[in-house]
Amino acid sequence: MKNYYTKEQIQAAKNTDLLEVVTAMGIQVRYDGKSKGNDQYRFVDHDSLLISKNLWYWNSQEKGGNTVDFLMEYQGLSFTESVKRILEFTGKIKETVIQNETLSKNCLDWNHRALSKKSSLILPQINPDYNRVIAYLNQTRGIDYSIIKTLIKKQLLFEEYKTHNALFFGYDKEQKARYVFRRGTIARKRFAGEISGSDKRYAFSITGSSSTVCVFESAIDALSYLTIHRDCKDTLQSLGGTALEALEQCLKTNPGIQSIKVCTDNDDAGKACLKRIKQEYKNYIIKEELPRNKDYNEDLLFLLESRNKELIL
User: Fold this and answer.
1) How far apart, in Å, are the Cα atoms of 188 and each of 45, 139, 215, 222, 304?
2) Does pTM top 0.90 for this prediction?
3) How many of the other CB atoms lie within 10 Å of CB of 34?
4) In terms of pLDDT, which residue wins out, 124 or 96?
């Protein structure tokens, strides 16, 4: 079944703010100052890739363009699929997309990608051992070894076969896998992204016993926080970026939660997420606990380095 778009829709997709799109995709960026009077951001995992408003340029690849071009290049999508996903994300598709001459009744939100009859989670092949993932999380990221072993035991963490990527799983209330986040473990080939069919509502989380949920942008930040605060009894919820679907689902699943502790990144995107949470969840006690550095993994690595220096002295 084909999708048809007007010139206005296509132009709207091209003009969509790239920062909102990439943060919703879970891609980490950092503020890089201003360029021609506009805020500019640089990808954490691709240092030569810059975005500003609806434009991007990848210096090392000598490529660039608008928001639609970005999805075509970065995710390998067709032009039509790129336009469709952006319009779904902005909500504009719900009013104007014509599908087989009738309005589409089943538009899926970009940040949702919920499982449907036509879409299911494609589970990757699992490696029989976890040596690479354990080494990466413990030695490179500083995550406590006992925490890693607990995650493996609870089947929240796996190692992907052949590639040795770290796989962070999320489950629904029936304990059915609904979400998988893939993180590369090779430094020179760092990448991250959700596996096809993942439902963002069920992003990686660790259930606690208190009435507080701590919200993070990534699983590694949540684990870094837990390594720093070993006595933490709160529920730890990764958003898989800065979209709030996972938080909304967490609150529905855990009606006893009374307060939300926001632990997103200490940058513009993280602070914007904090602001949205304050606006949308006024019935909850909102606590701010942003990291001192960019994110909680940076805080953890800084703390470990400081301790090592003290031991040497």
Assistant:
1) 10, 16, 29, 24, 23
2) no
3) 10
4) 124
